[in-house]
Amino acid sequence: MEECCKEHFSEYYQGSKFNCNVTQLTTGRLETNTICAPVKDVHLEVFSSNQALLYEEEANINSISFCWIKGQEKGVRKSETIISGHRMNSSSIAGFNRISKTGGNAWNILGANDTLYCMSLRWERMKERIQSLNAYNAYAKIEECIGIDCETKSSTQLKELVIRHFNGQQIKQPSKAFDLAIACLEIDDYSTDTRTSRSTSTDLIEDIVKLIHQDRNGMSPISLAEISEHLDSSKTSLNRACKSMFNMNVLDLAKSIRLEQVRKALSCQSLSSGLRIFTKEQTAQYFGFSKWRAFEELYFRSFLETPEETIERTREINISFTKQNGGDS
Questions:
Q1: Nearest residue to 233 (alpha-carbon basis) of 220, 246, 242
Q2: Among 69, 62, 64, 73, which Cα is nearest to 83's?
Q3: What is the CA radius of gyration of the chain?
Q4: Which residues, including other chains, have CB under 8 Å from residue 142's CB and lie 6 or more apart?
Q5: Looking at residue 9, what is its pLDDT?
Q6: I need a surface site. Which of 15, 129, 222, 297 has the fewest CB within 10 A?
């Protein structure tokens, strides 16, 4: 998934560097589905997963995103998707705030079995259109808000435009996507929309995740006391923030991220399967798991496969890919 995202971004914004991290938060074998459709100055994507995922990407100045989840019928479970801190429901549109950030990373939680639609618009063109329309309310919301909940004609038309595109009625006038996106933001009626601004809790989660990813590979796992000292926040506040967003405490989140780091290392297609099998215990130790037996059990509970099965599954993919391209097995 990460390589797919990087490839799409580099193709859409040639010359721009892009990095992202994906971490599985729930236990079980991961199955995802991604459909992308580029249009002039617009990139559309539909994504779904059977597991809850933490998705992080670098904030950038090239695109502005409008994300929503597929409308759910009444009585269906509550969505677990959170986009940049905005808890999503069937009327939510979020993600557009990341354009106003200078550096850093933007994070999302993609709920298990939610279908996420994301429309990325080229920022330069969006800004020009905002200025030509004098859409000052829209620009203010981009600067101030994480997301909005609204049921308006323009938001309904925007979602239908994207859904029709994936159903075969391709967008022939990209300008319509820009105008509908601006219309969603321009409406300034506090009785019909609910907006979410960045908060200290949202920023704290961002700092926690960033710190865990920057943790010292090959050394003892970072402790809660160290995280608390580094972020100048109490242990209680850190755990409360993580519980509210991830339904787990800080150290469990750190463990999930480290497990994902090991899985990615064991799946590395640039290394032979023999080398990966030979070094699998050293790989686990490098990412902070000193006791192999305990790590192996945790790994299996998380991904429903052993480290050896991860390596073998990746090897089979490589063989299949080689055969399809006329290579020798």
A1: 242
A2: 69
A3: 21
A4: 64, 96, 97, 99, 100, 185
A5: 65
A6: 15
φ and ψ at residue 177, rounded to 5 degrees:
-65, -40
Q: What is the DSSP string of 177-238?
A: HHHHHHHHHH---TTTEEEEE--HHHHHHHHHHHHHHTS-TTSPPPPHHHHHHHHT--HHHH
- How far is 106 from 288, CA to CA, in rounded Å? 26
Q: Looking at mean pLDDT, say which of 58-62, 203-207, 211-215 comes out highest.
A: 203-207
Structure tokens at 149: 């909940």
Among all chains, which residue has been given the structure tokens 């539909």?
A: 46
Q: To the nearest 10°, report the CA torsion of 310, 258, 219, 212.
A: 160
Owner of token pair 């994300």: 67
Do residues 122 and 63 make contact, with C-beta atoms less than 8 angstroms apart?
Answer: yes
Burial of 111 (0-12, 13-18, 19+ CB in 10 A): buried
Contact 179, 41 (CB under 8 A): no
pLDDT digits 0-9 by tens, 142-199 = 888 889 998 889 999 999 999 999 998 989 899 999 999 999 998 766 556 687 877 7
At residue 324, the pLDDT reads 37
The fraction of the chain above a pLDDT of 70, given in percent, is 81
Looking at the chain, list the stretches that DSSP marks H as alpha helix, in order from N- to C-terminal side. 2-12, 123-133, 136-144, 153-166, 174-186, 200-213, 224-231, 235-246, 250-266, 273-278, 280-286, 292-303, 307-324
Both tokens assigned to 123:
């920022």
* Token reading at 189: 């009626």
What are 76-97's pLDDT values in tens digits? Answer: 567 889 998 899 998 999 988 7
pLDDT of residue 318: 45
Q: What dihedral angle (degrees, nearest 10) is formed by the CA atoms of 297, 314, 216, 25?
A: -60
Other C-beta atoms lying within 10 Å of the C-beta of residue 300: 14
Q: Taking the chain, what is the end-to-end CA distance rounded to the nearest angstrom?
A: 25
- pTM of the model as a whole: 0.83
